[in-house]
Amino acid sequence: MNAVLLLVGLLVLSYLGSFLVGGRTVRGAGLPSGVEYVALGFVLGPQALDLVGGDMLASFEPVVQVALGWLAFAVGLDFGYAGERRARAGNIALATLSALLTGGAVAGATWLVVRRFHVGATVTEQLLLAGGVGVACSETTRHAVRWVVDRHSARGPLAEQLNDIANTDDLLPLLAVAVLFSLSPATNIPMKLPLVEWPAITVGLGLLLGAGAALLVRSELKLDETWAILFGVSLIAIGTTARLGLSTLAASFFAGLAVSLLSRHGKELRAMVAPTERPVLLPALLLAGAHLSFHDNPRLPWIAGIAIAARFAAKIVFGWLLAAISPSARKAGGLMGLSLMSSGALAMSIGLAFALRFPGMLGDTVLVVAALSATVGEFVGPARLRVALKRAGEMDDSPPAAPTPQRAPA
Amino acid sequence: MSGAAVVARKGFGTHAKHALLLVGFSGLLFYVTRAVPDMHGGLWTIAAIGFLLLAGTLTSELLGPLGLPHLTGYLLAGIASGPYLLRLVDEHTVKSLSPINTLALSLIALTGGAELDMAAMRRASRSLAWATLVQCFLVLALVTAVFCAARPLIPFARALPVAPLFGVALLWGALAVTRSPSATLGILSQTRASGPLATFTLAFVMVSDIVVVVLLAAVFACVRPLLDPAASFSFDSFVKLGHDLFGSIALGTTLGLIIAAYLRLVNRQMLVVLLVLGFGASTVLDYLQFDSLLTFMVAGFIVRNMSKQGHKLVQYIEQTGTVVYVVFFATAGADLDVPLLRQLWPVALLLAGSRAIISFAGSRIAGRLANDPPVLRRWAWSGLVSQAGLALGLAVIVAREFPAIGTGFRALAIATVAVNEMVGPILFKLALDRSGETSRIRAPSFPSMPPPPMPG
After folding, report:
1. Dihedral angle of Cα B59, B61, B63, B68, to the nearest 10 degrees
2. Domain assignment present for B372
């Protein structure tokens, strides 16, 4: 396939993606995790039909990096918010706990498998593999909860709490990605720094660039200049971290977070950037699917099976913890935690970032586990969420609402 | 959006803050480029685009109080960060940005066509006809003469016998006839100018884009026997030209009708549609060997004049195109060969200056013949000084077709176009400001921003 044809194809996909979301409104079409695009990418990719070959995927790395960085920037800009509402501080803490518990459990379980089967040549590689799988499995996709809540018009404290948790559990995974990438510094960097300094540089660089952008957009700028500054800063963060071998995702996330925290136009900036998320996401998922490779790691079934099982267990335990402190969660039943099983955009972005930074067995394993976890989550998460919301009395049995009317074009 | 508010001046503090942040961002990239060798060229291109975008935007803001156009700011930012000064953007990165240039040129041509109103063109047809006639032939004849006269100063022309010298001078004259639609649209987009000068300049530049293509085919046919004794006069190039022109116009018409139908029936996500058009359609047109600029220009013209969707198209391109324009002009700045300009500046200045003077004289003559309004008689020349991509593209073709003089010709063209590229936009903006056509309506900003104070 010609590179321009692929680019045009991705743009067409992006165009279709834009029809699924208008402003912040989910229209209800497609799966919340977007795994169908991952599957499509896999079918088109080098492991199946080979319409998108390995060389072409390599030449598209800058496009993928930009997509991942921009998504992380959008996530950072929106961090702490559930739609247009600010998330409760308690729920942000719970979300962080959820990510810690799930990511920790999955990483621990994966570590045991990796050690048992001697996967990976060095301890660093084993750490990266276990950590990468843990991080990629730790989040709950924001889209899943919004998808169910919007589609079934669910309203109530549990729906709100789960929405907050799904929207604000990204901080820890992205911080962990920054730490993990630092375990194996890029070979082109002449400076030798202590391990702890690289994650600090990643976060610091993101915050610094974001603060610069926030200062600039505080001035009275025209909309097109504001776009230029947001794009410019985001691209500088992506390119600079890629050159330093640091995590593009983490730096872009913290840049977005800094813009959101320091700019007095945060609301408008979020409204500007939010509609771009889905159109960028779908091509990124397609390319992630094309990168999937099941052949590099013979122990992949073990790692994937244990990781997903650990994710199940961790979500159930988190559900119990939530039930212990929240009366509405208590009403939702013992398996309520499984309603947070859906993963998608961020998990796949993390998987793809690992696949690009650590090509071969390590990166491919993380990406495949992220995709499988998202697929399993797709079957379990939305169904359990509907059950939980019904039990909590926040959703009736009426058929799903029709897709929300589209807003005026942005 | 805040709607129409009056232009507000930014305070010293804001400019100082912008300048400091620009220095800070430059310092960061300077450190990274020096401290860490680049292992993945493609990925640094991302940072380069980001920096050109940011630096171009900030530099243009900083130059605002001096009355300089944004475009000059973009160019200066590109020159400063390019391979010959700070080296934040290297030559490889500049070359890898060519897809952005393709996209920008498509958008520029589409906007140019969509800005051409048939009724306004009909009203200005007399002025346009005289200006096109006079500017083409006067510039061609006199610049050719100046080139011949300046022969001792031009390294590659000194040793040429008379006939080849005349041939090269004719090629130079044809190159001097080219104008810059991108610079014209860049200035008009910034100033949102409206009035006889803005309308005339845009129409003239876009029309001359087509006229120049025909003129070039004629000049090439005449010059070939002068530069290559084995060659003879041939009409082959006209056959190819006819194929190019009619094919481009036919495709442009089809494309325009499709865009108009889309705007009427769907009218969503024009950013993605424009990207698909910019990348996809340009590739198809290259493959078919049609002129993509002409095709997009015709498409824009059809949308404007054969449907009611023209204003929507222009609005969408203005919304999405600014970012692309900044990168386009900043990349042009980064691509500027500063050492070459330093070496050839006296002769480049002479040739650029004489071209400007001849354009001025031509404008006065055409204005009198067409009985133009005073504003056109006084300022019509100002928009005709800028040169950019078309002239450089022509220089590349000359270098390819006539290798014996190609290298020297191209180097001199780059140096001369650099002068015109820097000076032309400043002159045009000055003219729009002085003639009172620059809009005082402010572009949209955030709703939460306080309305800017009324002047005075």
Report:
1. 110
2. yes
